[in-house]
Amino acid sequence: MLDGRIARLTKTTTEIGIQLDSLADVVTFGLAPAVLAFVWGYGAGLTEGTNLHSFAWFISFMYLMCGAFRLARFNVQASRPRIIAEGTVKVDKKSFVGLPIPVAGCLIAAIVHLAPTPLLAFGPDRAEIYSGLLMLLVGVLSVMMISTLRFSSFKTVGTRTRSTRTIIFAVAIGMLIFLYSRYVLLALVLAYILHGLLSRLIGMFWRRPDSVETKIEPNTARRGSQS
Predict the structure, then answer these.
(1) In 63-182, at which residue ranges do the beta strands (DSSP E only) sit?
(2) Are 189 and 110 in contact (CB under 8 A)?
(3) 133 vs 115: CA distance, rounded Å
(4) Which domain holds residue 189?
(5) Mean pLDDT of 52-65
(6) Strand pairing partners for 32?
(7) CB under 8 Å to 168, separation ≥6 — which residues?
(8) 78-136, pLDDT tens digit by residue?
(9) What would the pLDDT profile of 152-211 be if each residue is shown by its tens digit?
(10) Per-residue buried b or exposed e for 18-57, using 16+ beta carbons within 10 Å of the residue's own CB
(11) Secondary structure letter of residue 164 according to DSSP
């Protein structure tokens, strides 16, 4: 959370720094959560050798691949923000295109942190149900990472001169994480994801009246010119 901000504040951003940051993110938020979800969750909760167990390997593999693609797309957009192929979503520095891979990895880690007991300890029947739900979650996170959904980057937070409220809020969040990390971390990650999804839904419904007005205005102008 701090490496990019410190690099921008000290004006030490470089191309090699962007690539190294992505390589670290692939391991930390891509490979590690994929292995964690498999070992703690559906890998041990499902019977080895079955088709569902093999599909669990596939889910973890696709999560890693989607995360790597998400980071590669971010690097391309960051290095060439103005040269974008036709049909590609326009880059906005205030938001990320697709769910950031640290958020996806942190959600898996927060779930394990909330309930560190492996799913196998709940019994074969319940472990199979929980494993299916976890596989569904990992699959959804994979799709969200390569989607065109926009999530706030919070890069402008704290950049203003009057940032006293931001500092107090950050300190309060830090203290809550220190005291109630099992619950606060999961709540923060879920709130971030839901904020992005709800913003997309609100934006879809908010733009509809504008599109209707643009379609009506040319027709009314033509009628007025004919009369």
Answers:
(1) 95-97, 150-152
(2) yes
(3) 15
(4) 3-226
(5) 94
(6) none
(7) none
(8) 766 544 445 555 555 677 888 999 999 999 999 999 999 999 888 888 999 999 999 99
(9) 877 655 555 556 787 888 899 999 999 999 999 999 999 999 988 888 888 777 765 544
(10) beebbeebbeebbbebbebbbebbbbbbbeeeeeebeebe
(11) H
CA–CA gap between residue 204 and residue 25 (Å, rounded) = 31
* Token pair 């906005």: residue: 92
Q: How many domains in the chain? A: 1
Which amino acid, one-letter code, is at 69?
Answer: F
pLDDT of 177 = 92
| pTM, 2 dp | 0.77
pLDDT tier for residue 11 given thresholds of 50, 70 and 90: confident
Q: Report the C-alpha gap between 105 and 63 in whole angstroms.
A: 10
Maximum alpha-carbon separation in the chain: 79
Stretch 71-82: mean pLDDT: 75
Q: Which residues contact 135 (CB under 8 A, 6 or more apart)?
A: 41, 42, 55, 56, 59
Q: From CA 161, how far away is CA 163, in angstroms rounded? A: 6
218: CB partners within 8 A, 6+ apart:
none
CA distances from residue 116 to 22, 98, 141, 179 in whole angstroms, order as listed: 28, 28, 20, 17
